[in-house]
Amino acid sequence: MKHNVITIILILLALDSFAQSRWAGAEVFAEASVTVAHGDYAPLWLSANRYGVASVRKLSNYERFGLIRPIEADSGRTWRLGYAADIAIGFGHERTFMLQQAYAEVAWKVLRLTVGAKEQPMETCELPELSSGAMMLGINARPIPQARLDIDWFNIPFTKGWWRWKLHGSFGLTTDGKWQESWHAPMTRYARHTLYHQKALFWQFGRKDIFPLTYEIGIQMATQFGGTSYNVRTTRLNDNQPIDIKHNTNLRAFWQALTCQGDDATDGTNPNSAGNTLGSYLMQLKYHGKKWQARAYWERFFEDHSMLTVQYGIRDMLIGGDVSLPKNPFLSAAKLEFLCTRNQSGAVYHDGTHNIPDAMAGQDNYYNHLLYAGWQHYGQTIGHPFLTSPIYNADHNITFRNNRIRAWHVGLSGDPSEEWHWRALLSFTKNWGKYEKPFDDPMCQQYFLLEGTYRPRWAKGWQGTLGLGLDHGPLLGNSQGFQLSIRKTFDY
To answer: For residue 409, what are the domain limits?
Structure first.
């Protein structure tokens, strides 16, 4: 790994000397990162919420190269263009070669079409480097290639800008089918060629140019559908013996994913909807100050109709607040979050029958699904990293074994000077496993990160980041380690 770091630095120097092409607003970058830890795994915050490019293994490194032109480079224009080609070569990773991003996007006024794999930000999230993540669509897993249409904020007629909407929708294809096939334990469930759909609608009330408070509320949903599921076990089909199920991928399947209709072969007499459908409600209240900003936010996750309609109350949630402070050398921003996923509509699940017509839709089993490998991509949760990703399962069973948790999280950051930036994350979790297989005793686990970034004025475009991580507890074990990253950018 030391040899790889030296090699990447030499490549950076060569690029700096010979790069001559010009793309207005584009950025060419190269990055090298190494992680060294003592324990079963790398500390959580050295790998989580990095779009899946960092490994959970205790010894790993990667080299990353890319060309990115953000669509914001055409800000103020009617027609706008963005694109990226971003690759990584990893050692101690699940895959050696990673096509991290490859997309093109074009926008006209408030319309934008994006095609390819792009690292999308979390909805209604600010200060992402301090966040613990999001329940439905976080920044923890590698991007899923998709065609996505966005309609950005637009004013509702006759409201004079006090009421605005935005929405988006996409269809895509997960790329981890071969990884699932090679990684899964024998005779356990996995899937290939899984299709993906996601949609969202948000409303915003208020005008910050007149009154400093704005309120935002929205709903987002996603579905895994199509493809083929292998080694499916259910008492409703073939007496709990493993079977393979090929799902529909015709136009009707796409329509059912869009409208949350249809059923699966394993639904029996109680059809639900085709595929693995989930979603969340989001809200935020924001204060737009001249020198500082503050925000309170809330996310409510759901796996089925009982959670969608709040049939059994609101007991699970991600709730938090953050503040951005006026410029000072001590503290720039702070965030506090609380997460609870213990309830999941209760401990009882029963479909209505002739003898017992009452139905109880509990045991929602967050992120898991009977037919698909759950809400994950390459073993990393697409949602919140506190719900333990399948990549941590030593027996290679692609399932979420710990999805009932309670957690507190604190994030702090500061900018002592224009050259230096630091952040600190501290998380306390209590973990119960899952309803069908709880832990014998709840497990408490703590995660800590202290990270500093140096951007020297005397070396334009260079950046070095050193992170120190510490995990403590029986869930993932005790581990200590560091991560060193060096990055060079070239702006054109």
So the answer is: 118-454
